[in-house]
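Limitations
The structure tokens in this dataset are predictions for the assembled complex, not deposited experimental models. Users should treat interface geometry with appropriate caution, especially where small molecules or nucleic acid strands are included. An illustrative entry is reproduced here so readers can see what is and is not provided.
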Amino acid sequence: MKGFLLSFGSEFYKTRKTLGFWGSIILPLAITLLAFVAIYSKSDHFANKPGMMVWIQFSMISLGSMGTLLLPIYTIFVAYSVNNVEHKADTWKTLFSLPISRWAVYGAKYAYAFFLLTMCMALFTLLNIGFGNLLGVIKPELKFSEYHMELQLAQVFFKLLLSAMGILSIQFLLSLLWSDFLKPMGLGFVATVTGVILATNDWKYAYLFPYAQPMAAIKSMIKHQRGPADHFEINVFTQDVYVSLIIAVIVFFAGYVIVQKRSVK
Amino acid sequence: MVIRTQGLSFSFGNQQVVKSLSLEVPAGSIYGFLGPNGAGKTTTIKMLLNLLQASEGSIQIFEKDLQTNRIEILKQIGSLIEQPAIYQHLTGKENLMNRAMLLQVSEERVNDMLNLVQLTSAAGKRAGQYSLGMKQRLGIALALLDDPKLLILDEPTNGLDPNGIIEIRELMMRIVKEGKTVFVSSHLLSEVEKMATHVGIINHGKMMFQGTITDLQNISQPHIYIETDNSVDAANLLKRNQIDIAEVEANHLLVPFLSTQQMGTINTLLVQNGITVYTINKQYKDLEKLFLDITKSN
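Predicted assembly:
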């Protein structure tokens, strides 16, 4: 456990000046800021609409863009960036000749990629809540203050995070095995586009394909319910999320077996 | 023995690059692991660090099996393999601090290491902007950071200027005086001869020689290279004066080197007997010639 924590700390120390780390902060900040500007500049259009509606309009800018292309691509990038630090510096050989178990090194690297993704999603949640409330204060005609959906927002971004876990494990392994940029990124991009096509066409088995799961997660987020449409509940643990988690766990352990047996060039 | 391997073999696909290697590295030695490029030195070193899994054979370090005591053994080893592995976007000091964090070493030790390899003034500079020599020195500082009992260095003088080479050599000698062991690979015989106490010579993955530096010197005696206006007459004259001849060619002859006085005597003898001497100098054998001699002596 000590080796794991030391390795995790080292991952932060190594990447704190890289785009891989700052991307997790810049991406949510840029998109929510864009959403803020979009709603602010079109405030007349949204004025006096019900609170729930403006919240949905506002947060769907982040959720829509993340749920379609951005989340899979960002996950591919995170997986690539944490491994690329070692490929670029040719440091796998020193990392694996330290008195730390291979399990700790591999586990900490994966955990750090997961941490970056979690941080990104947490920031999306916080910034959406923050900017939404700010809009309500500076433009009182926007009825943000009349409705609260903090919990639902947290649940949706958490659901998105879970739905990206399958992609994370697969891309993490590919980036670990391949030192070049094109193979894991290219393969991931093609798979993402395929996933988007499958999910938008409502293919019956799209939920089984990891790269379609973020979009499937967005589609399956609203719990079907009866009664008045003045509130809604989020269904976090849907079929696509379970499949994503199962794939993530299987590929993570398969990756460890490969790392354990693999020669370090 | 600090390192003992038995029947160590490794193959890349069908190509066997290390063949039944038996290393014996005594404690407190500077063991020069000598061989031409592509002989299997780096592969052997990677097996010693558990980076490559040997297809056959066993490795014992500090009298313990490497496979079953990996972490305990690696705690006592510092290594530099091929080009130094350095995070280019971090400064020299940050590279050391990162490793210090993993090894739980103090910042004071980091500063000491920077001082030792004379990088204190460049500590805040990004390592990507370092010269090859500076990177190599940083690599050595990284290897020495945890005060290891065994230092494994793969061609550490590559890319260093003559001053740098001397510094590294002196550093190794100093480390050994502290009771540590250094295992250093090189493709230069003259380099190994200057610092090693023990030598292992590898070619095509096979150990060709292993012993003390004195054992090696008995095989790799230098020669006196003589160019004259008549090699045959010169050779006959030297023979008549009880001087051994190692080789006679049309344009030169070789005589086993015994001392500098002997060189002077030969020169005087040749000149006094009317033979014009164009060149006379001491020559070390190159690796190729040494391999031939070792094969012959085996």
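Some entries come with short summary sentences. For this one: Chain A touches chain B through 24 residues (CB under 8 Å).
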